[in-house]
């Protein structure tokens, strides 16, 4: 249910916690089994500003990402490093919508409703 209709998924792990990288592998398996076939997957190693206490080698994470054809990048949410770049990479891999999808009849128009008249009881 989490993935239905998704064009992309970002799976994040903490580079300072090996356990989070192992959990990431479980999420990737779940996504591959239940997600859309053509979903763009990105693996983000967060907290690269804490490289001095790193538990997950970048090489290992990058090789895993390559093995599943995923985007790989290390980020720092704290310092806003590579966050925008991550989403730019994803946007370049998402296929454009077909005209039929853009012009579908699954749209609706928002309009303002008139204020209801107040009625008094009795």
UniProtKB/TrEMBL annotation:
Taxonomic superkingdom: Eukaryota
InterPro entries: P-loop_NTPase, Small_GTP-bd, Small_GTPase
Keyword Cell cycle: no
Cross-referenced SMART domains: RAB, RAS
Keywords, alphabetical: GTP-binding, Nucleotide-binding
Region Disordered, annotated ranges: 103-122
Family: Belongs to the small GTPase superfamily. Rab family.
Protein name: Ras- protein Rab-31
Organism in which the protein naturally occurs: Ataeniobius toweri
């Amino acid at each position: 249910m989490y993935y239905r209709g998704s064009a992309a998924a970002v799976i994040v792990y903490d580079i300072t916690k090996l356990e989070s990288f192992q959990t990431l592998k479980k999420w990737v398996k779940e996504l591959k089994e239940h997600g859309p076939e053509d979903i763009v997957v990105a693996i983000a190693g967060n907290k690269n500003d804490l490289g001095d206490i790193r538990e997950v080698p970048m090489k290992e994470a990058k090789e895993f990402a390559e093995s599943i054809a995923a985007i790989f990048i290390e980020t720092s949410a704290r310092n806003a490093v590579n966050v925008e770049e991550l989403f730019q990479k994803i946007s370049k891999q998402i296929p454009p919508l077909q005209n039929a999808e853009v012009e579908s009849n699954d749209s609706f128009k928002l309009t303002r409703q008139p204020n209801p008249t107040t009625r008094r009881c009795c």
